[in-house]
Write a structure and sequence with these properties.
- The chain has 319 residues and is α+β, with helices and mostly antiparallel strands.
- Among the domains are: 51 residues; 155 residues, no CATH class.
- The protein is 71% helix and 16% strand.
- The chain has eight helices and five strands, in the order ααβαββαβααβαα.
- A five-stranded mixed β-sheet has the order 2-3-5-1-4.
- A hairpin with a 5-residue loop joins strand 2 and strand 3.
- The longest helix has 73 residues.
- It starts with a helix and ends with a helix.
Amino acid sequence: MTLTQFLPGGRTAGLIVALTMTASLAACSSSDSDESSGASGGTMSEQSAEDTDRSFGAQSEGDAAAPADKAGSASVTRTALQTPAIERHVISTGTVSLVSEDVAEARRDVQRIVDAQQGTVTQENTETDDEGVATYSRLVIRVPSSSFAATVLSLEKAAELRTSQVSSEDVTTQVIDTDVRVRAQEGSLRRVEQLLARAESLRDIIWIESQLTRRQAELDSLKSQQAWLADQTSDSTITIDIERKREAEVKKEKKDEPAGFLVGLKGGMKALGAFASAMATIVGALLPFAIVLAVFGVPMWLLVRRTARRRQTKQPATS
């Protein structure tokens, strides 16, 4: 059974109806597919555009940040190369004047401070009185420059401080200049030695040797100056004067002591001790005489007394 059998009008009318339905279905399907493909295509194109913009922006920011980082690092490197750290070289000297009742004890305290700071005593002069007691001492010490301030502070507390002086001299420029001149002179000396090795005539040899001798002397002088600067900047020099306190100053300090019960008791005990010492001295001085009088005086006194009694007994009998 066919489609023309159901439709009126024969075979031609059925064919027309079939073609119309087919076209309608094709149009509907094509419109649906176009809408879906258009929607999906628009979505994909918008997403791809946004992704492209984001990637381009990120790349632009990265390209902009990279030169900035490179420029910053380059500027830091140039600054570090242009301003290198310079080691300071300073010559420090000090003078400390002390006063003490016991110069020898103060001298020992100074030696303990020097040993604690790993220093050395380079010069010492000590004076004594007729009894051999130290009255004055002068010391010159060398300590590391790093402990110069701590050493001076400790020495000021070793005894009674009278005066203290400290001075410093920056010789950084002089040290750098001397090092440069030494290197330049060494290079010049090597070149002269090479010329001497290639010299052929006697006249050239004599002239080059004179130049060699002169430049060697200049190099030795520069090295001596370099060694002196190194020694003075590595260790500092301190001069200490220790003088015995005068008796007038000691008496004045004793008079300035505050009054009070304890002070009076202390004075009374000292007076009692002085009186007892004086009495013991007197007794000790008179004791030999007392012994002599006891040995010879007592028998003589007894003899005289007995003789006097006999005379008294004889006088009444005679009368």
